[in-house]
Amino acid sequence: MDSLETDLQVVSYVKAAFLTLLAYDTILHIGQEYRYVWKSRWSVVKILYLWTRYSTFIDTILAVQERVDFSRDASSCNRIMTFTTIFAGFGIGVAEIILMIRTYALYERSKKLLVFFTVIWFAAGGVNFWAVIQWTRSFKTEAAPSVGSACYLSGSDGGIGLVCYTSLLAGETLIVILTLWKALRNVHLQRSKLVTSFYRDGVLFYLAILPFSVANVAILFLAPPGLNLIADTPLRVMHSILCCHLITHVRSTALQDEETETRSALIFAKSPKSGGTYDVRSDFV
C-alpha cells in the first residue's frame, strides 16, 4: 500500500507541475501573443491558437482538482476522468490541425494535400471518438488509500486506449515525414528564414512531443495502477505549449524577414526544377 500511496502522490505532483508550467508559459509569452495573435486579423489559425492555448486550462484544472477534492466519491471521479479524457483528446485533435496547416503551407497550399489531410483528420477523428468513448467506459476508479489523491484509476482497457495514442503518434510521424521530404526536395533552393523556421520547428516539435506520446503508450501496459494517469496531462499541456509556440515563432520570423527585406508580405513562389527560391505566405500561419 505504501507504494500505491507514493505513486498517487507523484501523479498529483506531476499534474500540478504541468498546470503551473501551462500558466507560467501563458503569462511569460503574453506579450508575443498580443503582438502576433491578438493584433492579427481573425483567421482559422487565430481561432485554433486561442482554443489550443486556453481550452487546455479547463481539463488541466479539473484533472488537478479531481486529485485534491477529497469530498468526491469514486463515481464522481469517474465522471471527471471521463470528461477530461474526452475533452483533452479533442483539444489535441484541434492542435493537430495546426500542424496540418503548417505542412499544407509548406506544400504551396496543394489541394491534393488539403483533401488528404481532411480525409485523414475526419477518419482518424471518427475512429478515435469511438475508441475514447469505449476506453472511458472501461475506466474503473477506486477511493485512494491516502491523502495523496482523492481517488485513482485502478484499471482500464489498455488495448482500446492504445488506438488513441498510436493514431496520434502515426499522424505526427506522417507530418514530420512530409516536412523532411519537402526539405530534401528543396535543399538546392535558396530559402528564407521563414521556410527554414518551418522545417526546423516542425522537426523539433516532433522530437519534443515524441517522448510524451511513447510514455503514454508504455504506461497503458507497464505502469502500476497508481501511475495510470501520470502522462496524460503532460501530453495535453505540451501539445498546447508547443503548437502555440510554433505559431508565434513563425510569425515573429516572418516579421523579421519583412523588415530586413522591406517586403509587405511573403508569397508562394513555385519551385523551379533547378535554382530559384522557395517561400511560403507569412500571413497563412
Automatic annotation (TrEMBL):
It comes from Mycena albidolilacea. Keywords: Membrane, Transmembrane, Transmembrane helix. The chain crosses the membrane at residues 12-31, 43-64, 80-101, 113-133, 159-181, 202-223. It comes from the Eukaryota. Residues 13-58 form the DUF6533 domain. Pfam families: DUF6533. InterPro entries: DUF6533. This is DUF6533 domain-containing protein.
